[in-house]
Design goal:
Layout (H helix, E strand, L loop, with lengths): L11 E4 L3 E6 L15 H12 L9 E2 L8 E7 L2 H12 L4 E9 L5 E11 L4 E5 L7 E12 L3 E8 L6 H8 L13 H4 L6 E9 L6 E5 L14
Parallel strand pairs: 4-10
Antiparallel strand pairs: 1-2, 2-4, 3-4, 5-9, 5-10, 6-7, 6-8, 8-9, 10-11
């Protein structure tokens, strides 16, 4: 698989004149913030600038984000037209995002979660409510449980809405916090761990050809996923 040849290095799932689809490593920012740590957008701009010997500033549109501790499929737009059309699909909820998560406890075989989420921008904490409250936004997801044991479950999640920290907050609210999630789980148990959440599939309409595109990232391996066989 081709990579960006940057530090950190980012695997490239697909690339054409309009799209750059990557497998974001866990711990990497999607966009630069106050920390000054490396981020997907600037690293991928550097990759394009070097590979195609482009002078000046490189355009690359960030149409969606993955939380810093989350890994997996992420699409960027190489033209403003592609960015506009992808953003439209996101607003219309026609882009389908599938995640794998490892949660604490024995999750139900399948289900749909509906909560109302409100983000505190100062603390970067999202709160979940069972019923409408203030400016909280309705948030929905569907899931099936792939594997389970006494203490943990591997679940596949299809996002219906795309809210900040949505999967993490909703499952924590249901008593199934994600493995390694210090923000919404047990801080002591999560210390020094990556969160067990990975974007494994993304389905969208190509911004120019209108073809249905399905991009997949390799299934997660290593700790803690290796406690299961799948």
């Amino acid at each position: 698989m081709e990579t960006t040849q940057t530090s950190p290095n980012i695997p490239i799932i697909f690339e054409d004149n309009h799209l750059l689809v990557i497998d974001k490593p866990a711990g990497l920012l999607s966009q630069e913030d106050h920390t000054g740590d490396p981020d997907v957008l600037n690293l991928c701009k550097a990759y394009i600038k070097k590979k195609y010997n482009k002078p000046g500033n490189v355009y690359l549109g960030l149409v969606h984000r993955l939380d810093r501790p989350v890994s997996g499929v992420m699409v960027l737009a190489k033209t403003s037209k592609a960015a506009s059309r992808l953003s439209y699909q996101i607003r219309k909820r026609t882009i389908n995002k599938t995640y794998w998560a490892l949660v604490q406890g024995q999750a139900p075989v399948f289900g749909e979660l509906v909560h109302f989420l409100e983000k505190d921008n100062q603390s970067n904490i999202v709160k979940a409510y069972k019923s409408p409250k203030g400016k909280a936004k309705e948030s929905r997801l569907k899931f099936i449980t792939i594997k389970t044991n006494t203490n943990f479950s591997v679940i596949e999640v299809d996002l219906i809405t795309g809210r900040p920290h949505q999967i993490r907050v909703q499952f924590a609210k249901e008593g199934h916090p994600l493995w390694g999630d210090h923000k919404y789980g047990n801080p002591q148990e999560a210390q020094g761990k990556d969160i067990a959440l990975r974007a494994v599939k993304l389905e969208l309409e190509h911004p120019t050809t209108k073809e249905l595109m399905i991009f997949k990232a390799p299934k997660p391996t290593g700790q803690p996923w290796n406690m299961f066989e799948y």
